[in-house]
Amino acid sequence: MSISEMVVPYGDPRPPFHRKSAFDVGDYGLGYCANSLLLGCDCLGAIKYFDATFNDHNGQPTCIKNAVCLHEEDAGLLWKHTEYRTGKVSVTRSRALIISFVVTVVNYEYAVYWTFYQDGTINFQIKATGELSTNIFADGEEQAGYGTIVAEGIIGQFHQHMFAVRLDTMIDGLRNTVSTVDVEPLEGEFGSKDNPYGQGFRVREGRLANSAESRTSVSPATSRIWKISNDSEINPITKRPTAWKLIPMNSAPLMAKQGSLIRARAGFAEHSVWVTKQNDEHLFAAGFYVNQSRGGDGLPSWISTEDNIIDEDVVLWHTFGVTHIPRVEDFPVMPVETCGFTLKPNCFFTANPALDVPPSSKEVNKSKLVNCH
Ligand SMILES: [Cu+2]
C-alpha cells in the first residue's frame, strides 16, 4: 500500500490559475519532503523511529533522520457487552498500531497515518495542515466568488486535494477479484409478490471483469463498498470466497471538466476506483514524468488494454480527497482537515478476530479517579 500521487487543482477560472495545480508526488517527490520527527511533539508514548535514505540529484545517498514513526495508542472501545440476564460486563479496549510520517510541501503539511487495529481494520488517514496558498487583493478589487476572504486583503481560493493510493492486494493469495457492492431496495412495489410488505432490500454485487470497465465511483445512496475477494479460498462459514472490503469516505469528484489541462494531467482523479493487472512499471497514477506533462500517461493509458482482472494479480487504485472551501479559521495556520479510507476483513475470518484481546483492567492501564473535593 502506498501513496501514488496527489494533486491540488484550484477553482478560479481566470488565467493563470488554470495552471495552478501542484502534483505533490510527481512534481515535488513527497518522500523527499519528510520531516525529521520530534519525540514528545510529533509522537507521544513508546516510539520507534526509522530513518529514510534517498538519492539526491547527483545520485548520492542522503538521509532524513526519524522520518517514519511506529508506535501504539489506546483507540477507545473495541467491543463491549453487558449480559442483561446476569449483569456480567465484558469490555475490551482497542489498541492502534500506527505508522506515520509528516511532509512539508512548500506551504502545506500532510501528516500521513497507516493504522492497524486488532479486529483487522486498516485505516488510512491524511491530515492536511500548514498554510493556505493565498492571493492578495488589489486596492478596490471586487470579490470574484472563487475564494474566501481569510484576512484583510487576503483571499484563500477554492481548491481540491485529490489523492491516489496504490493497493497491491493479496487477499488470501496473489489472485484476487474486485467487485462493487451496493445496497438497494427490492424492485417490487409494496404489495407485490417478492416485496409484499414493501420494506425489503438486498445487496447487488458487480464483478469488475476488465481494467477498462473497472472505473467506478462512490455512491453514498447505495452505501457502495468495493470487495476484494479470492475465488479459490472459500470461507467455511459463508461458503463464499474470502474477502476484504474498501470503505470510501464518499468525497466529491474532480471538479475540472473534460478538455481542461488539469483533467488531462490528473486523469486518475476522474474515478474513485480503478483496477489494473499488476505491472512493476506502473507505480505513479499520473505517469512517470509528471512535471510539465500534458497528460496521456498513467492510469487512463494503463486501462486502455482492457486486461482481464478476474482472478488475477491485480492492483486497486483508490482516489479520494478534500474539496477545500477555505474558512477564516484556516488562517494564518490551518487546523487539520482529514481524509482517507478504511479496509476491513469481510467474511475473511470465521469469527470476530478480536475475541482473544484481553479485557480492559485498571491494574494494567493505571486509570485512577480524580478527587474533586
Ligand atoms: Cu486546502
Automatic annotation (TrEMBL):
EC number: 1.4.3.-
Coiled-coil residue spans: none
Keywords, in A-Z order: Copper, Metal-binding, Oxidoreductase, TPQ
Superkingdom per UniProt: Eukaryota
Domain Copper amine oxidase catalytic: 1-355
Cofactor binding comment, as recorded: Contains 1 topaquinone per subunit.
Chemical reaction(s) catalysed: a primary methyl amine + O2 + H2O = an aldehyde + H2O2 + NH4(+)
PROSITE patterns listed in its UniProt record: COPPER_AMINE_OXID_1, COPPER_AMINE_OXID_2
InterPro entries: Cu_Am_Ox_Cu-bd, Cu_Am_ox_TPQ-bd, Cu_amine_oxidase, Cu_amine_oxidase_C
Stated family: Belongs to the copper/topaquinone oxidase family.
Entries under PANTHER family matching the protein: COPPER AMINE OXIDASE, COPPER AMINE OXIDASE 1-RELATED
Protein name stated in the entry: Amine oxidase
Organism annotation: Allacma fusca
Lineage: Eukaryota, Metazoa, Ecdysozoa, Arthropoda, Hexapoda
